[in-house]
Design brief:
The complex is a heterodimer.
Chain A (H helix, E strand, L loop, with lengths): L1 H6 L12 H34 L2 E4 L4 E4 L3 H9 L1 H32 L6 H13 L2 H11 L6 H8 L14 H26 L3 H9 L4 H12 L1 H17 L2 H6 L11 H11 L3 H30 L1
Chain B lengths: L2 H34 L3 H4 L13 H9 L2 H32 L5 H13 L2 H14 L7 H9 L1 H16 L3 H8 L4 H12 L1 H16 L3 H6 L8 H5 L11 H21 L1 H11 L4
Classes of the chains: A mainly alpha, B mainly alpha.
Keywords (chain B): ATP-binding, Cell membrane, Membrane, Nucleotide-binding, Transmembrane, Transmembrane helix, Transport
GO molecular function, one term (chain B): ATP binding
Membrane topology (chain B): Multi-pass membrane protein
Chain lengths: ~300, ~280
């Protein structure tokens, strides 16, 4: 700080360490410092700390941590059967959600990328759940999806279908959570696809049409390859998002029934803040970190290969 | 059939399909408001869209069951604080990253990019102990500090940087010639030119804070400190079962104002999210 005020004094510029270049550097760091200091304290620091936490076991009574090495990781990966059950749930959630979300987003975007009567209405409608809080959305769907007396089931009864108790039935809970989550988030991917579609020059399509290409051929040969970079970004973001899902599950099922929707983010919360297994929860958080990083890298590499 | 007729039929089919697809997007909102007006007995009866008897009392009970007005205000002022802070620090850092050359810039960018990939759940445990050691549990500080300086703040910084990069440099250089300091150039020239980016950051940051759930859940314990999402999830009877009509009335009160603003400014709001390209 002091160095900067010095630069304003006459003659200060002569000092070699206060040449224009250094002055600019100092100014730049001053501009960045609020973000950077906050980043160090509330992000980078905690990120380093969690590696230490993961190798400790906390005693709640004495409030002291004992170093236990890789015990917590051993616990998660080899001993505790819950862990693999939870990973399996997270994978099922992602595998169900990501393709469904992306296919629906692309379909809606293809339908809504050109102006026609009502296009603004539809875009507004499909995007509305994105701006709504996940808790509010989950509350309403939990209400609609109740077993007896639930609105959805009463409507199904009108056409003679005996609906299950969606969120309490182990066979249906995960599917119900995935579908309601897709409806909540699909609008975001839809607008990313719309932006990408609108950036494609119309000449390409016109030329192909004059050559006699069908709608499907135009999509398959021209539009889909041009969308590849967008598809990659959407895939990475949606996959990461699906591993992070917490509030939706918390409110709709609380991880139930029979831990059928207990996903990784919820399990971390449960272990860390309900059961106070701080060390174990930290190990879980690191595993989640590794999974998300690995997924991102794999997807980026796969797509790069495909584009070559 | 002529090509024209085929096109009309094609279009109509699409529109009908879209209308059907729109039902699960609109229906929950409509039902939420309708059920918020129903009595406990009616809510489980044969479902009707229009309540047979409008029970306005629900909307009064919401405020007596919990300090709902206070909780509403908490959410509002925290979101405003987070938005204001994020605007200032992200536009400062974004400007430096776009316009100034300094040692460590490359490394800094790398750090920031990796932050975008790390879920908040990963750092929440150490952050809890950090906040506790500061004595700030059950205050609103963590709900202001963590979102501002976490991955969301980094995303805002990147968004500002992208926008500054695309601005023409000439005006800023003229400003420098006229004797403006770096700070002056940023404040008087760069910021006024980047209103669209600032608006985008403001919109997504406000909604991000407004809808935040994990942090309030972990840090808050007294009812008067609760924010809206936490308050909404708390409308349960002594057995932990939801008090549906109160919960849905409260949810309507939380959601409808946001929806109205969204309907008025939908173009601007959708564009902001497209610009950020991240999950809200």
């Amino acid at each position: 700080m002091a160095a900067v005020t010095h630069t304003n004094e006459p003659g200060a510029n002569r000092a070699p360490w206060l040449t224009l270049k250094y002055r600019e550097m100092l100014e730049a760091w001053l501009f960045i410092s609020p973000t950077f200091i906050g980043f160090l304290v509330f992000f980078l620091g905690p990120l380093v700390a969690i590696f230490y936490y993961s190798m400790t076991e906390w005693n709640l009574l004495s409030q002291q941590a004992a170093f236990v090495g890789l015990h917590n990781f051993n616990d998660a990966l080899l001993v505790n059967p819950d862990f693999w059950h939870v990973v399996r749930n997270s994978v099922i959630f992602a595998v169900g959600l990501v393709p469904f979300n992306m296919a629906l987003a692309l379909t809606l975007a293809l339908a809504l990328s050109r102006p026609f009567f009502g296009v603004v209405f539809f875009r507004t409608v499909f995007f509305a759940p994105v701006v709504t809080s996940a808790i509010a959305w989950a509350i309403v769907w939990k209400f609609l999806l109740q077993g007896e007396g639930g609105v959805i089931n009463q409507m199904l009864a009108l056409v003679g279908i005996d609906g299950p108790n969606w969120l309490r039935d182990p066979n249906w809970a995960m599917a119900a959570v995935i579908v309601t989550r897709v409806i909540k988030m699909v609008g975001l991917n839809m607008i990313l696809y719309i932006a990408a579609l609108q950036a494609i020059p119309r000449d390409y399509e016109e030329a192909a049409r004059l050559e006699g290409a069908s709608r499907w051929q135009i999509f398959r040969m021209i539009i889909w390859p041009l969308l590849a970079p967008t598809t990659l970004i959407i895939m990475v973001l949606t996959t990461i998002g699906s591993f992070k899902v917490f509030d939706h599950i918390y409110q709709m099922t609380g991880g139930g029934p029979e831990n059928g929707t207990l996903v990784l983010a919820f399990y971390i919360y449960q272990q860390g803040f309900k059961f106070f297994n701080v060390g174990y929860a930290s190990a879980l958080a690191i595993i989640m970190f590794v999974i998300v990083m690995a997924l991102t890298l794999v997807q980026v590499m796969l797509r790069r290969k495909e584009m070559e | 059939m002529t090509q024209r007729q085929i096109n009309v039929i094609y279009r109509s089919c699409w529109t009908i399909a879209l209308l059907i697809a729109a039902i699960p997007f609109i229906f929950p909102f409509v039902w939420m408001v309708s059920a918020g007006f129903k009595s406990t007995t009616e809510i489980f009866g044969t479902p009707t869209l229009i309540p047979r008897e409008w029970r306005f009392q629900n909307f009064v009970d919401v405020f007596t069951y919990q300090p709902f007005a206070r909780q509403y205000f908490n959410s509002l002022y925290i979101a405003v604080a987070v938005t204001a802070l994020t605007l200032v620090i992200s536009s400062l850092a974004g400007y430096a990253l776009a316009r100034m050359r300094f040692a460590g810039a490359g490394l800094l960018m790398l750090f920031f990019v990796s932050a975008l990939m790390v879920p908040e759940e990963v750092t929440i445990i150490p952050n809890f102990f950090l906040i506790r050691s500061m004595g700030l549990v059950d205050t609103h500080w963590p709900l202001i500090l963590l979102p501002t300086f976490g991955p969301h703040g980094v995303m805002a910084t990147f968004l500002m940087r992208q926008y500054f990069l695309a601005l023409p440099k000439e005006l800023e250089e003229a400003g420098k010639m006229d004797g403006l300091s770096r700070f002056g150039v940023w404040w008087r020239i760069a910021l006024p030119m980047s209103r669209p980016a600032l608006a985008a950051v403001a919109i997504i940051t406000f909604l991000f804070s407004w809808n935040l759930f994990l942090e309030p859940l972990i840090f808050l314990s007294s009812l008067e400190m609760f924010t809206l999402p936490l308050a909404l999830s708390n409308f349960n009877d002594s057995y932990g079962l939801p008090l549906w009509n109160l919960q849905l009335a409260a949810t309507s009160l939380a959601v409808v104002p946001i929806l109205i603003v969204y309907l008025i400014a939908q173009r601007q709001i959708i564009e902001s999210f497209a610009l950020s390209g991240v999950k809200g």
